[in-house]
Design a protein that fits this description.
The protein has 18 helices and 19 strands. It has 426 residues and is α/β, with parallel strands linked by helices. α3 packs across α13. The chain is globular and about 70 Å long.
């Protein structure tokens, strides 16, 4: 009876690497150390599976489905290859090279979520850290526009309030600050919880930056506090907490990155961190969701120099946010290959309609909205459960995803290699 003592959980970008998985007769029987989300994924991996290849909704064999997919890609003038955040780095490399060979566009889900991080980062002096450094050294942790209790449940117990090398008492040695538009479970563990008005992240950042930097007119801070719907005294206490940190980190989520005035909000957060770094040490982290979205970004950067939305239609790699991401090119693309994503469930309604009207090839282990609309749907092995791969944690640490059980489906990379080989022979 095999027992994996240090398996990596392929649910979110925390990629917890201390999961104990017990396998019996090629089935996962028990999972320990995982959060409820990771446990559900590992224990229910056989549910809602895509059991057979589909061509226009009818069950077909693998070879027939692959032949149809190859014909669609060969006949396309500008195909879109999209997703890649819920698959391994090996598959990502092949998908990217396939898009280059076809003269299409290759994009990952980062373009839809934390694209502003990449757009704004070069304008500020920010520094990189790891989750292990956060665990070992951070005495002030800020959660801004995110709630890891729901999105990354073990982020708290593994990194944010656990005991660290220089934080021996864990949560009692740390000060937790939360900024959000709604009260959440974090209110119970946070020293300060600022509930602000929606879209007013910039006002809060500017007020804190003025207080931290000193010399701000009280009238100006009061006006910003009133705009954000928080008290000046509360802001002052938070400012003192940030300023007195030995090492601090701000984790921000889609509550900022996908909010009203998102660009201004993210830029204001970066500016606040830049000011804090003049007097102490502060890092900033986007709370990534998909388990290998960071791997997709790293693969794109390594292969093309760009993080997402790469257009090869002119024979060279071109990156221009607002013009080359999936949402920008749907009207000019005439086919799509979707891997490791469900865009019909996540795209804006009008964009999803555009995508659904073109020939769609979908590689996915599960039945999804995008699979239902697919011209060709090819079932694949579940990465990190039925297929070995590499994934990157949200702090860019590469980790090996093990094959825990034998499946009867090919991996994403195997299917993509078949597609690539046949297209190169043409």
């Amino acid at each position: 009876m095999p027992v994996f003592e240090a398996a990596v959980c392929p649910f979110c970008a925390c990629l917890c690497d201390d999961i104990v998985v017990q396998v019996e007769e090629n089935e996962i029987k028990d999972v320990r150390n995982a959060c409820v989300l990771g446990m559900r994924k590992l224990l229910s991996y056989k549910e809602n599976r895509l059991e057979t290849p589909l061509v226009r909704g009818e069950a077909r064999g693998y070879e027939d489905a692959l032949k149809e997919a190859i014909e669609i890609l060969k006949g396309a003038d500008k195909p879109l290859v999209y997703g890649l955040s819920s698959t391994g780095c090996g598959a990502q490399i092949v998908a990217l090279r396939l898009a280059r060979r076809l003269g299409g566009v290759c994009d990952n889900t980062e373009s839809l979520c934390h694209n502003l991080f990449h757009a704004l980062q070069p304008e500020f002096n920010l520094f990189y850290t790891t989750l292990d450094d956060v665990k070992d050294k951070a005495d002030v942790i800020v959660f801004w526009g995110c709630n890891p209790v729901h999105s990354h449940p073990r982020h708290l117990s593994k990194f944010s309030y656990s005991e660290g090398r220089f934080i021996p008492k864990g949560i009692t040695d740390r000060e937790i600050v939360c900024v959000d538009v709604v009260t959440s479970e974090l209110d119970k563990i946070a020293k300060w919880f600022l509930r602000i008005r929606p879209g007013k992240d910039t006002a809060v950042c500017e007020a804190l930056q003025a207080m931290v930097g000193g010399g701000a007119a009280m009238k100006s801070v009061k006006a910003l506090a009133e705009e954000a719907g928080v008290g000046v005294e509360d802001l002052s206490r938070v400012a003192e907490t940030l300023k007195n940190a030995s090492f601090g980190v701000i984790f921000y989520g889609l509550g900022v990155a996908a909010s009203e005035n998102a660009r201004d909000g993210v830029a204001a957060l970066f500016s606040l961190v830049e000011t804090l770094n003049e007097m102490t040490n502060f890092a900033i982290f986007p709370m990534k969701g998909h388990f290998n979205v960071v791997g997709a970004v790293m693969t794109f950067l390594r292969e093309t120099g760009f993080p997402f939305g790469v257009d090869f239609s002119d024979g060279v790699a071109r990156f221009e946010p607002g013009k080359t991401t999936a949402l920008d090119v749907l009207e000019s693309c005439d086919a799509a290959l979707i891997v490791g994503a469900d865009p019909l469930a996540s795209f804006p309604k009008e964009k999803a309609k555009l995508l659904s009207k073109m020939p769609l090839i979908v590689l996915d282990p599960f039945e999804t909205l995008t699979v239902e609309a697919a011209t060709v749907a090819i079932p694949t092995a579940l990465t990190g459960v039925e297929a070995e791969e590499t994934a990157y944690r949200m702090d860019c640490l590469p980790l090996k995803l093990e094959k825990l059980v034998e499946g009867n489906m090919p991996s994403d990379m195997e299917v993509l290699l078949r597609l690539q080989d046949n297209i190169e022979k043409a």
